[in-house]
Sequence to fold (167 residues):
Amino acid sequence: MQILIEAIDLNIWEAIEIGPFIPTMIVGNATIEKYVRVSNCKNAKEMWDTLQVTHEGTTNVKRFRIKTLTHEYELFRMNQNETIQDMQKRFTHIVNHLASLGKIFPNKDLINKVLRCLSRQFQPKVIVIAESRDLTDLCLATLFGKLQEHEIELMRLNQHEEERNWT
Fold:
C-alpha cells in the first residue's frame, strides 16, 4: 500500500504517517490555526462558500456594492486641481471593483465616460480625440496617456506664461 501511494505522490504518504499539515500562527503565547473561518467546514464546497461570502459578501451585500459603485461611476467627474493620473487611479479603482463584482462596461462606454467627465481645460483635446479616431478602437490606457501628454503641455504653457509675466 505504501509503495502504491508513494508512487502517486510522496506527500500523500507523509500526510498519512504524520497527519495533514495545518498552517498555524503564534498569537501571544498560543499557537492557533490560520484558517479559523474554514476549520469547521466538512468539505471543499463548504470551505469555498465560506471564503466566498467572507471576501465577496452575500448576494445582498454584492448587490448593494454594485449599486453604490455604479452610482459612483455615474457621478464620476474630474475634481478641481486633480491630475489625470489621480483621476485615472480613482476611475480604475471603481471600474475594477465593479468588474470583480461581475459588472463590466464595454470599452467604448469607459472611453466616453472619461471624455465626458474631464474638466473644461481638456475640452479641446477631447474634441481632437473624438474627431480624429474611431473611439471603439481606442484603449483606455492610450486615452489616459494622451490626456497626460496634454496635461504636461498645459503645465508647460502655464509655466511659460508665468515666466513672461515676471519679466
